[in-house]
Every structure is written in structure tokens, then in C-alpha cells.
What we know:
It is built from 2 helices and 13 strands, in the order E-E-E-E-E-H-E-H-E-E-E-E-E-E-E. By secondary structure, it is mostly beta strands. The chain folds into 2 domains: 8-97, RimM (Elongation Factor Tu (Ef-tu), domain 3); 109-166, SH3 type barrels (Roll). The radius of gyration is 19 Å and the shape is elongated. The model has no long low-confidence stretch (mean pLDDT 92).
Amino acid sequence: MESSTEDQPYDVLVGIVVGAHGVRGELRVAPETDFPERFAELRRLYLSPTRGAGRLVEIVGARVHQGKGLVLLRLAGVEDREAALALRGSRLYIQERDLAPLPAGRYYEFQILGLRVVTEEGCDLGPVTDIVRTGANDVYETPQALIPVIEPVIREVDLEQGRIVVRWMEGMLK
């Protein structure tokens, strides 16, 4: 028996409350997503405060704060500045089903972290433990290697098998 989508966990981080905007309870949110405009399409989020129990909250309104890199978010039940300020530091999560679709060959970080990295020859380089941002390209870090995320190196990403196949290049060992 399959579970309903309501039973799916809210475990994809999309933002962190950094403060209040105005006096009517609007939250200033630092987005943890490449698609901050998607907040306006969401109906609810899971709010995990720095203290106390988390809860499912209804979104009343959302807009991108132009030039500030923030999202301004209204939640049901948050009616004034004090209530908004009390949520500072809270993390906001969505269900995986609410993610924006990505083009073929693109992946969310949470999908990559933990995947086993193996060479075309079958050498196990361990799981991806971190994704390092460089100016030119990302780098997948494993316990044994630093893997540049470039087309000649990344040969296959297989989410179902939980692995990334790479072409070995000199200099990838730690």
C-alpha cells in the first residue's frame, strides 16, 4: 500500500527566517533554493523553530524582495512584528514532491550527498560527503577524492542505484 503525499516528510530545506519586515508579521527569509519565486506557489511549509516544537504552517503570501536576495513571507497566525521576530532562526522545509523540476542532468544537493562514487574501472571512492563551490565548477568531496563536476569526469549519475560513475583523472586523490 502506498502512502499518501501528506505522509511524506517535510525534509527539504528551502529557507531560514532572518527577521521581520514591517509591523504586520511579514517574515524576511533567506532562501536556500535557486527558485525563490516558488514560495508564491506553495500552500504550506514545515516551520522548525530554534526552540520548541516544529509545526506545519499555511502560507498566506510570498514575494521576492527585489535587490535584497530575500523572500518576504506571510504565514497564517503570524500577525505582528513581535510574532515574526520570535521566529528568527527558524528553518523552513517542504516535501520533495513540491520541488521545482530540474532539467535533465541537474540534481538537487540532497540527491547527490551520500551517493557512492565509483570509477569506470569499479574502484570505490566512497560516498559524497560535501559539495564544494569553486568559481569554475562544483567539486564532490568523498573520503578519498575530490571529484570535479565537469562533463569529462562525471560519466553517470544513477539515483536509483545510489551511485555516481566517474572517469579517473590525475590529481583527484586527496
